[in-house]
Amino acid sequence: MNNVLHIIPALADNYIWLIENQHQQVVIIDPGTAAPVIEYLSHKQLTPAGILLTHHHNDHIGGVLELQKQFPDLLVFGPSEIDLPITNISSQSTVTISDMTFQIIPTPGHTLGHVSYYMQPYLFCGDTLFSAGCGRIFEGTYRQMFNSLVQLSLLPNDTIICPAHEYTLSNLKFAHHLVPHDQDIINYYQQIENQVITLPTTLAREKKINLFLRCDNLELQQQFDCDTPLKLFQFFRIQKDSF
Description:
Blueprint: E1 4-10, E2 14-20, E3 25-29, H1 35-44, E4 47-52, H2 58-61, H3 64-70, E5 75-78, E6 87-88, E7 94-97, E8 100-106, E9 115-119, E10 122-124, E11 129-130, E12 133-134, H4 142-153, E13 160-162, H5 168-178, H6 183-192, E14 201-202, H7 203-209, H8 218-223, H9 229-241
Parallel strand pairs: 3-4, 4-5, 5-6, 10-13
Antiparallel strand pairs: 1-2, 2-3, 7-8, 8-9, 9-10, 11-12, 13-14
Helix pairs in contact: 5-6
């Protein structure tokens, strides 16, 4: 079965992802607003089968009630931190919508209940992992976010990563500021600097250009005087917060 990935730009810099099966049914991930989703479904003649939510921030859930109103039979799943009429998946390891089954990966850090969804080869990671970056730590700890990223980095290298925001260029500028001679970062920035949409990305690429996935690199640890991967991750995140 070949699934088809769709991307809908929304709000200021959000992406709403759709994954389509062979019956033109789609699962919608993190609809922060409803109007562009409804328009896209109509234009592409797609049938919504369900919604997956990664965390409780409004730019990820703001369109849910309107979509439920428009499509009364819509199944909506998310972690218990979301205060909406949805099915709580916090204690589950998988969720199935139509013929599509997703592995639920707890990825706390950005929020305490944040989850990611993996259906090979696609990873929908909300605000945990971005291209060349990671999410801010609002509710969790540095250790939680670091452990979440380590867990995602263990997925196959051909994993197609679908973050919820377009932050790639700003993340690469930050990385270049810290490691100005890194040729992989320089090359990738030059490759995408004129692209409006830089996603999805791949795990193989991110392991090269994303400093937050390279915290076990001894040379980087020595360069920034950090004696553990966690300390280097914390250093990078604090630097990014004020960049």
